[in-house]
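TASK: fixed-backbone design
INPUT:
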């Protein structure tokens, strides 16, 4: 899967955490080359996204979806009456 937006989110998350690809590899158990490929072309591997999210201390949803997609989904859930109970 070639998802440039996902690739950008993966790279930005690693950089915000202050990690090199080698450090991200050590923290996630994912080979450096696989991380490099995902940060360039994106990935359709949820296992990869979840491993990187855990290594970066993030919810995987924040890597899988753009801010706009998350806000749209939240709005749809609220409209459907499935929002967070108060």
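OUTPUT:
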């Amino acid at each position: 899967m070639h998802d440039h937006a996902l690739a950008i989110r993966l790279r930005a998350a690693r950089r915000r955490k202050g990690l090199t690809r080698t450090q991200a590899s050590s923290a996630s158990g994912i080979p450096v080359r696989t991380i490099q490929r995902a940060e360039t072309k994106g990935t359709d591997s949820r296992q990869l996204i979840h491993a990187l999210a855990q290594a970066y201390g993030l919810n995987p949803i924040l890597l899988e979806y753009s801010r706009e997609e998350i806000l749209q989904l939240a709005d749809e859930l609220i409209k459907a009456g499935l929002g967070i109970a108060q």
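COMMENT: DSSP finds six helices and no strands in the chain.
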